[in-house]
Amino acid sequence: MSDLVKEKLREIITRHISPSEEAWLLQKAVAPPLELMTAFVSCPRFLPKRIVAPEEADEWTLSTEVPGFSITGWSLVRLARVWLLTQLDPSDKEVYVHHIETLFDTAEMNELVALYSALPLLSYPEQWLFRATDAVRSNMGFVFDAIALHNPYPEKYFSELAWNQLVLKTIFNDKPVYLIEGLENRANEKLALTLSDFAHERWAAGRSVPPGVWKLTSKFMNTTLLGDMQYLFESGRPEDRQAAALVCHEATFPSANYLLAKYSDLEKSVKSGQLTWADLEH
Amino acid sequence: MCINHNETTTNPSHFEESEQAAAPATHQDIAWNDYRELIKGMRFFDPHIHMVSRTTDDYQAMHQAGIVALIEPAFWVGQPRTGLSSFKDYYSSLVGWERFRSSQFGIKHYCTMGLNSREANNEQLAEQVMEILPLYIYKEGVVGIGEIGFDDQTAAEEKYYRLQLELAKEARLPVQIHTPHRDKKKGTERSMAIAIEHGIDPSWVIVDHNNEETVKSVLDKGFWAAFTIYPFTKMGNERMVKVVEQYGPERIMINSAADWGISDPLAIPKTAALMKMRGISDEAIKLVTYTNAIEAFGKSGQIDVADFESGFSIDQSEKFYGNSILRGGQQPSPVKESILIR
């Protein structure tokens, strides 16, 4: 991670705190590791409880340096904690990993959120794979969000199996799947077919599937998925029908285009660009 | 066959009549509804109770009896811990699951963090615990370093007591001292002398488990004197009433220290009722069962009475780490008067 990111984060923090609070934070950032780690824990005692308001230029700089990284909606304490972690000396790998692991082991919920949010900025990224996949497995709502949504770490480091789990669990938990970083880049056939199975289970139970998830299937269209599209077109839910239209439009599988042609209104709005996936993101 | 007389008397069979007198009664025969009437409308703060070893029924009874907030000090769980992970899990439960469980019954939960005196004697483990303790004492809702002090009064206990006093000073947190069961008077004096030696203001120190023998010295030196109403081993509440009559309510607080032993999580409301019956003023009762504890531990900056003074709404369908207190199919708040348990 570049120094530019650290500098930018510090700049944003400074804008939100008083000179004495800043002095406390700066002093802790250069303290010996245990003192810095203690400061990580004690941030809520020394810093104001507020939500940060980054400027557009800030977010642009951050996402240029670390694609997909964003601090929108973060609390100041979360941001300060993440910045403190970037100040830990990574030169001795064993020591560095031990410190981060200790913080994970002793963390309460808000600290875990900060730790998972910091993963894209930590050194030795492959070291945190177990923690990251574990966060997906657990049922901690806020912690799950910290790893799954707006976090570029999974896209970059998760195996296909772990990635597919993350996407499925996001859908299963009724969280907005489109907030997962790299969703389209990491679309894969296995995931598309699993989604189909998942949808069948839901339909059997009289439930529905969020329409946006079908976006992940268009590249892998086959006869099974085409059957699902047929089902969606025939369902009474306008959003399901729109999703099917978008998938069939994007798919290169010839029969998909024939299927879409049967629904001329939908075909027209998708071809004219009037209907997009953004309409289904909520 | 020759029977060893000692053996039969110290360990009689269930069918043998004991020659000893029946165990002394620990509770006066006052019906629950009678004393409930006496304390109607009162609010209580239990500054020392180990909920990790209590049941959900206790939380319900405590809430009904007017307990609105409590402090759970880190303590000895009855069996030695064999590794650092057990400490980490225990400390995490004090700020995590247990706090959540308490909130589900309308009781605000705080805790104090520390390495207890008994386990300070396992120096190898104690060293490791001291390494991670700073990561716990600054967490939200931690209102002190406790319960620390002496048990056997060994050199190792003294070493870790002193180290934790320094930690409290650094973190600007109150100290909750556990005084030993054996040789209590000496242990109490020693604990106070060491705290003063470390430059800690006595008004930041709560000396716990006092009795008639220790109270005067503790109050004279400017410390808070806490009393544990605990059957058999610590204070009885009739004795407690006399202490309040003699010393007044200033800087005195009572607690239950209820844990895995034979103890009573309603010790405070029951003692309040008894004080009321014996003519102690409502104002004095409020000080020793509520206000003093809040003042002493409130120095941590972690207690906001607005969080519990007027009660808070409970939603038993809320979840902690995706886990509810409700087990499969249970409905929130069952009706206790009903004979049917579904």
UniProtKB/TrEMBL annotation, chain A:
InterPro entries: EboA_dom (IPR047715). It comes from the Bacteria. NCBIfam families: EboA_domain (NF035938). This is EboA domain-containing protein. It comes from Dyadobacter sandarakinus.
From TrEMBL, chain B:
SUPFAM superfamilies: Metallo-dependent hydrolases. InterPro entries: Metal_Hydrolase, TatD-like, UCP005295. Keywords: Hydrolase. Residues 1-23 are annotated as: Disordered. GO terms for molecular function: hydrolase activity. The keyword Cell membrane does not apply. Residues 1-13 have a biased composition (Polar residues). The keyword Lipid biosynthesis does not apply. It comes from the Bacteria. This is TatD family hydrolase.
